[in-house]
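tool=predict chain=A
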Amino acid sequence: MRRATFILPIIVVLIAVALSSLFIVDEREKALVLQFGRVVDVKEEPGLAFKIPVIQEVVRYDDRILSRDIDPLEITPLDDRRLVVDAFARYRIVDIEQFRQAVGVGGIATAENRLDSILRAELREVLGSVSSNDILSSDRAALMLRIRNAAIASARSLGVEVIDVRLKRTDLPTENLDATFQRMRAEREREATDERARGNEAAQRVRAQADRTVVELVSDAERQAEIVRGEADARRNAIFAEAFSKDSEFFEFYRSLTAYERALQGKNSTMVMSPDSEFFDFLGSDNGRRSSVGE
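tool=predict ok
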């Protein structure tokens, strides 16, 4: 009974020691086995691993792609037009032993602070070598590629690989917005004034051409009308002449009736003339014409 009393605690201690010597490496992470702060083993494959209890410790690092937002940074491009750039980077720890040596016990937080410094320096250098129009244009993938390639070389000493760098937002500083908006408004108003002037000029040309066309059409129509009117008058005179040659007395009678009609058109027409006037030849005789003196 006494023997069992001593054996049971020993078994418990052995089990505890055995369990403390085992650890599991997740597939999303990598692990370092440290002994008195020195790296003695690197565990990059997921599964069960062993360490010496008490003497050795395990430090785990994320093996996934991590994202880091960079605080807004004010830069000055070649054209001295200041811009506020907001960017982010994606990176991954590729060499955890070198990563441990570079950042020590600070871990991810220290690494991201150093990575921020690298990215901010590369952003200033690359974006400061081009104009603001290149930065604000939609085709700025080449600039982001230059920043990423430069950051890869600088971050290699950390055991980190920079996978991508992106510009999220590129704006003007607050103090420059009003002046920029005023300049843009003035430029747009000038363009609108130019467009209106060109429009008025084009309208004047169209009106002038239309007036000229109207004058030409009216002149041509009047010319054609005069020609038709002249031909009609000639035709009418020819008809009258032909009729007169066939029956001169009837033609004279017709002309007299036409004269009576025109002379007596008014409602209150008054005519004063001699009764033996030739105007009444056909009204004063029984046969339609006053007899001559010899008759």
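Residues 174-246 form the longest helix (73 residues). The first strand starts at residue 22 and ends at 25.
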